[in-house]
Amino acid sequence: MKTPLLLRHLFDYAMTYFPNQEIVSRTHHGMHRYTYEEYGARTRQLSSALAKLGVEVGDRVGTFLWNDQYHMEAYFGVPAMGAVLHTINIRLPADQIAYIINHAGDRVLIVDRTLWPLLAPVREQLTSVEAILLTGPPQSTDPVSNAYDYETLIAEGDPHFAYPDLDENAPMGMCYTSATTGNPKGVVYSHRGIYLHSLTLGLANTLALSMQDATLPVVPMFHVNAWGLPFAALWFGCKIVLPGPAPQPKTLLDLMAEEGVTLAAGVPTVWMGLAKELEAQPTPLKLRAAVCGGSAAPEALIRTYEERFHIPFIHAYGMTETSPIASVARLKSHHQSLPASEQLSVKSSQGLLVPGLTIRLERDGQDLPWDGEQAGEMCIQGPWIADEYYRDERSAATFIDGWLHTGDVAAIDKEGYIHIVDRTKDVIKSGGEWISSVDLENALMAHPAVFEAAVVGVPHPKWDERPLAFVVLKDGATVDKSELVTLLATRFAKWQLPDDILFIDEVPKTSVGKFLKRALREQYRNYLA
Predict the structure, then answer these.
(1) How many CA atoms lie within 13 A of 99 on its CB side?
(2) How far is Cα of residue 279 from the mean position of the Cα atoms in its chain?
(3) Which of 390, 327, 394 has its CA nearest to residue 189?
(4) Which of 11-25, 173-187, 217-231, 303-317 has the lowest mean pLDDT?
(5) Bridging pattern class, strands 263-266 and 289-292
(6) Is 289 helix (H, G, I), strand (E, B) or coil?
(7) Is 177 annotated in the active site?
(8) Residue 101's closest CA among 84, 82, 81, 80?
(9) Is there a catalytic annotation at residue 465?
(10) Which of 373, 434, 495, 522 is catalytic?
(11) Mind listing the pLDDT tens digit for each residue in 338-385?
């Protein structure tokens, strides 16, 4: 039977079969709780209110929100009516925020009142924006032209608003991904793509989401759809726990304990911070899965969760262009009999490709074998993989002959497990040979005194580039530089060792918590000259 795959089908299923399930959100003023049934009525009211404002099929609606109930309402309320949900990264510089709002052509913005000061400086530059909906408790004066109070507006909406039939290939959402140079690049998602991606998150070989779970997306909802968790979690009837504004490790730990969270997802720096908090405040948790992505998780971090805290750690890989989860590191049945150290090696890989996708390795225009040794750029294709950037000539360099060229250098072993060596822009090319910054970082972070480590290639007069390492120590810990060099020498050839190791207070990070190596390369570009 030919049936379109639409976001409203996920929504309708959840409202029909799980009306009493809970959505819990931390807010500026305490905890907010309601059932799926109550959520569903408000979501339809939002859709109705947007329609009364003149929002039509295909129009962009931008969100400038925390991970909270308002964002959750927009996640389905905007695309189910046929509009396009554009989640805006609140941590970008003001000029980039203005660029992506204008480039996307957002007609309406939904903004948390506490975040308005970030938008205020560029309000007059937002040429396409016709209306702004402000969430949270009203202020005595809201100094925003064309602004509506969210609650007042949706109170007038129809809780039985009927969602239209749409083309499954129509756009339902968009996110912007950072670029090495120039402005962010827009990635558009279709109803069909997100439907299929959501379906894969319920597979036992991936995240196995089910109605038995309580999920906590720590990854921001403005970042690649919070890895698809809000869509899939609602569809499968999970209890949904939202961390709200600027959650800190202690906040997250308390939420996990109090709400019985079984699956949470965040970047490595989130899990590092939470591990530090767990060390200081041992707390019983029900976590069956700590899902980590965004950048490679150090083996030491995985070992800490699995051996010290007895929390299963799931390593996932993806990017904005892949919707995002493209592979997940789960053990095959025969791995269960392997020693813990060998199991850890599998778990620290980027895992197996999610069913439905296809992958190959390419170097110098040639496909490479899956032997676990030869490394090349990963190229991926599939039904939820983007095929272009929105109105951007840079598409031609990334989407080639039906393949997404990821920019990640990897090897794939004979069992199909992906082992990322580096980003093409981060791999260190020294004397004609490649050195993996990721491998060096993981080895450094295996030392018990090291909290974070980053390795970058800096110019060298003889070898073109040489590795330079940066280390952040744990509170109160000390270690001699020579001890770290000795540690590395047990695993790496002499020519692969960093030319120096510098101790710093903090590794610079991107707006979503990844290491910002570009800043280190620029700051220390003349260090070895």
Answers:
(1) 17
(2) 25
(3) 390
(4) 173-187
(5) parallel
(6) strand
(7) yes
(8) 84
(9) no
(10) 434
(11) 999 999 999 999 999 999 999 999 988 899 999 999 999 999 999 999
Q: Which of 35, 177, 251, 424 is catalytic?
A: 177
CA dihedral 31, 37, 41, 46 (to 10 degrees): 50
How many folded domains does the chain comprise?
2
- Residue 71 C-alpha from the chain's centroid: 16
Active-site option among 429, 486, 495, 522? 429
Residue 510: name the closest of 248, 223, 230 by CA. 223
C-alpha angle 54-59-64 in degrees, rounded to nearest 5: 95
429 is catalytic: yes
Question: 440 lies in a domain?
Answer: yes
Residue 106 structural domain:
8-247
Q: Counting beta carbons within 10 angstroms of the beta carbon of residue 435, is it exposed (0 to 12), middle (13 to 18) or buried (19 or more)?
A: buried
Which of 218, 247, 276 is at the close of a domain? 247
The pLDDT confidence band at residue 141, using thresholds 50, 70 and 90, is low
Confirm whether 412 is domain-assigned.
Answer: no
The CATH number of whichever domain residue 131 belongs to comes to 3.40.50.12780
Active site residue 332: no
Instruction: Report the CATH number at residue 440.
Output: 3.30.300.30
Query: Which of 247, 272, 296 finishes a domain?
Result: 247
Q: Is residue 205 in some structural domain?
A: yes
Residue 329 lies in a domain: no
Residue 133 has pLDDT above 70, yes or no: yes
Measured in whole angstroms, the distance separating CA 66 from the mean position of its chain's CA atoms is 14
Largest separation between any pair of C-alpha atoms in the chain: 70
The pTM of this model reads: 0.86
Res. 180 pLDDT band, cuts 50 70 90: low
Q: Is the peptide bond before 508 cis (omega within 30 degrees of 0)?
A: no
